[in-house]
Amino acid sequence: MSVRLTVTQRSEAGGASGKEVVLDDSVITLGRDKTCQVVLPQQAVSRNHARIIQEGTLYFLEDLGSAYGTKINGKALPKGEKELLRNGDVIAIAQYDVRFDKVVEIAPDVSDKTSFLARGALKDAMRGLAGGEERFLRYMNGPREGQRIEISEAQEHVFGRDEKEADVILKDDLVSRKHAKVRRDWSGTHVEDLGSRNGIKVNKKRVNRKALKDGDELEIGATRFVYVDPAEPPDEPAVSLSSESSAVVPAPS
C-alpha cells in the first residue's frame, strides 16, 4: 500500500500552491534536509522534522524533536509520541500543510465496474495479508509505547489500577481499581466501562460500551491504545491512477 501526500505552502497573501507525491516507503521523513523524502525548504523546518511510519496497514506520525513542533489537524503533536494517521488528516509543519491519504494504484480504466472490482481485490488482499495474525491493542504512549496486548477469541482483559483485580495494570491516578474491560466474542471486539470515575474514550468520544474497529483509538486514563485487526479491510482507501513517487520540493517563500 502507498500513501499520497499533498503539500500546500501557505503564504502571507492567503494564496497557496500545492504539490502531490505518492510514496510506498515504510518510513517517510519530512524536513529541510535534502535526504528527506519530503523536502520542506524553510528555516522554521528542522533538518529531520517528522516522520510517517508504517506498521502493517496502519500509519503513524512522529515528531523528531523539531524546534517548532508539528501539528495534526490543528493540534500539537507531543514530542516522543506517535499519532495514528487517517485519510484526510492534515500535518502542519511551519508554513506547510501536508494532507495524508492511503492509496491503492489500479490501471487507468475508470469504469465503475473496474473501480468496484479493484476495491474488492484490495479487501481480499488485506484479508490474505492477515495470515492468521492475532488482533491486538498497541500502546501509543508511556513507557510501554509500542508493546501489544493480544486479543484472542473468548478472552477478556480487565484494565485497572488494582494488581489483584486487573489483568492490565495502569499505574495512573486517573484510572480506577477496575476501570474497563475489553472482550472478543462471536460478535466482535468490545470495550466496556466498569463504572470508573473518569470513564473511557474511543476516538476522543466518551463511551460506556462500544465495538472496536481496526484503527480505533482507546483512552483509559492517560494511556492511549490503538486497536489493530489485521483481518479487517481498510475503509474505502483513496484510489490513485498515478505511479509517481518522486520527492516533493516546494519552492521556498
UniProtKB/TrEMBL annotation:
Compositional bias ranges of the Low complexity kind: 237-253
Gene3D superfamilies: 2.60.200.20
All copies of domain FHA, residue ranges: 28-77, 157-207
SUPFAM superfamilies noted in UniProt: SMAD/FHA domain
Stretch list, region Disordered: 229-253
Transmembrane segment boundaries: none
Family annotation (PANTHER family): NUCLEAR INHIBITOR OF PROTEIN PHOSPHATASE-1 (PTHR23308)
Protein name: FHA domain-containing protein
